[in-house]
């Protein structure tokens, strides 16, 4: 059996305690002293653990980038996070789509492969993309499915939500409507939540002039991003997301 070696500090502590007990035995204690000496110490209240804050990754095109917003803080991803009380990472590339390369040459598929696998988002919103309206839309379902599966493979614990294209001009271009229809059907086939700004009428003849800046290549203004954030937050709050963050009733 290994030999136990006690430190000098521990031995000194024992001697000190024995000495104190000897002194106690030779000198009687008053009632107050006895009570104070043997009173059970008060246990400090534990510091409450803060509730976890969900992380939402928003991935998309120039709308997610916030092209016409004052800055990223005024773009809809971060404003949505403020409404819901979530942390947000927004990754957008101007001009990018499932089929169309962006200003940096990135398709959605190639950009997903470049994401940090250690990010650990709880919710992923894949936005877009009207940038594909000039492409052969027969290839869209296959490309979109590959992107969504790549997200699910990289972040298997995250809830994936697909946010379809919102119109930048009215009347809505025919191919933009086709993109929305194709993504909506594919999301249903894949069992994913799909939010359609077109079907929900987010932008109409009555409000598009208030929210879309025609001088900025028909992108949302600060007011437009604030409005989009309100609509997106309302839809996200209705979905069955964040199961790890929902209290289970006993």
Main attributes of the structure:
9 helices, disordered N terminus, SGNH/GDSL hydrolase family protein, two-stranded antiparallel ribbon, SGNH_hydro_sf, signal, 7 strands, hydrolase activity, Rossmann fold, 40% helix, single chain, SGNH_hydro, disordered C terminus, 250 residues, alpha/beta, 5-stranded parallel β-sheet
Counting copies of identical and different chains, the oligomeric state is single chain
Rounded average pLDDT: 85
Fraction of helical residues:
25-40%
Straight-line distance between termini: 49 Å
The number of distinct structural domains comes to 1
Specify the biggest β-sheet.
5 strands, parallel
Count the DSSP helices.
Answer: 9
Task: Record the strand order, biggest sheet.
Answer: 2-1-3-4-5
Architecture (CATH level 2) name: 3-Layer(aba) Sandwich
**CATH level-4 homologous superfamily:** SGNH hydrolase
Low-confidence stretches: 1-26, 246-250
CATH class label: Alpha Beta
Global Rg: 30 Å
CATH topology: Rossmann fold
Description:
The protein is of the alpha/beta class. It has one domain: Rossmann fold (3-Layer(aba) Sandwich). The chain is built from nine helices and seven strands. The strands form two sheets. Strands 2-1-3-4-5 form a five-stranded parallel sheet, sandwiched between helices. Helix 4 (76-84) packs across helix 9 and helix 6 (140-154) crosses helix 7. 33% of the residues are buried.
Strand and helix map with partners:
Layout: H1 8-26, H2 31-38, E1 55-60, H3 62-65, H4 76-84, E2 87-92, H5 108-113, E3 123-127, H6 140-154, E4 159-163, H7 174-190, E5 193-195, H8 208-211, E6 212-213, E7 219-220, H9 222-238
Parallel strand pairs: 1-2, 1-3, 3-4, 4-5
Antiparallel strand pairs: 6-7
Helix pairs in contact: 4-9, 6-7
